[in-house]
């Protein structure tokens, strides 16, 4: 089962995706030929940069069924999530609203959970709801928690660790029935599943460039115009992005993000089918070599490239990773991987500490080849066998 590729095999596409060559080609002129500030519309180069930014903004909007005027460009989904949650809360407070409850779920990204918790210091009521054993939102718990005191409900479209797709339309309907705003962190969903802000009744939706084969350092927040959603900006400056996100726009990154969204809108469904085939091939090969391998959240709908796998025999996933240095995989969220404690997402779906520590996250993507998955499965199986042997000797 040994395999020795001359390069690392990358299977961590939930942490980040490689930049598509078409994206890189679209970005290059805006570094090398026209480096103007898009706000410098007094001269020709500035106007050209502004036109390129606005074209890209239209591509971002098109991926989610929005209008270009509803897209606020940010540095990424973390900033977009903070702006959505804190911005909505602070604007409402400034208008004297008595809606103080902000509701989210236990498996949300850290930046959402911490944004919601931070609002407690400003007089808001954070509510963190449970999920079931497959990571799906508890809709009954949501209905019980959402009432006329609720300002906002935030639910992740696709979980970044276990790949579970939430029923956004149902969650959005519950929020709307109570007159609350609905926000979704769609960073892991864009380009992987169909998204339409009207169908899910989203008021706010966060995106990230580097999750959709675009560059790092760029993202967006969709902010509904009709009926208009009002936010307080996070920081002060020159008033760019409708006054919500001051700062000079990085034209190359914006152009790259737009191109990535354009490609995803055309090829996303084809990608998903091909990636699902690679996922199934990988899982079949690894399961055959590792008896007792289990998949987390087996009863939930998931994005095609995700596998959250529990290795048997008490073998820690970190030991498997260490024994397979040419395979790039992870134990969970890249934003939490430095923590000593097991993943909070895995604990939220009911895994005990031993199974949580034995969980490996696989993220297969657009450029993963059949040879990649075959080699990776063989190397991880070898790594598990070595780690398992070491665990058995340590127990003697």
From TrEMBL:
A single MF term (Gene Ontology): transaminase activity
Residue span, Aminotransferase class V domain: 9-375
Keywords: Aminotransferase, Iron, Iron-sulfur, Metal-binding, Pyridoxal phosphate, Transferase
Catalytic activity: (sulfur carrier)-H + L-cysteine = (sulfur carrier)-SH + L-alanine
Names of required cofactors: pyridoxal 5'-phosphate
Protein name: Cysteine desulfurase
Presence of keyword Transcription regulation: no
One Pfam assignment: Aminotran_5
Role: Catalyzes the removal of elemental sulfur atoms from cysteine to produce alanine. Seems to participate in the biosynthesis of the nitrogenase metalloclusters by providing the inorganic sulfur required for the Fe-S core formation.
Gene3D superfamilies assigned to the protein according to its UniProt record, in alphabetical order: Aspartate Aminotransferase, domain 1, Type I PLP-dependent aspartate aminotransferase-like (Major domain)
Organism classification: Bacteria, Pseudomonadati, Pseudomonadota, Alphaproteobacteria, Acetobacterales
Family: Belongs to the class-V pyridoxal-phosphate-dependent aminotransferase family. NifS/IscS subfamily.
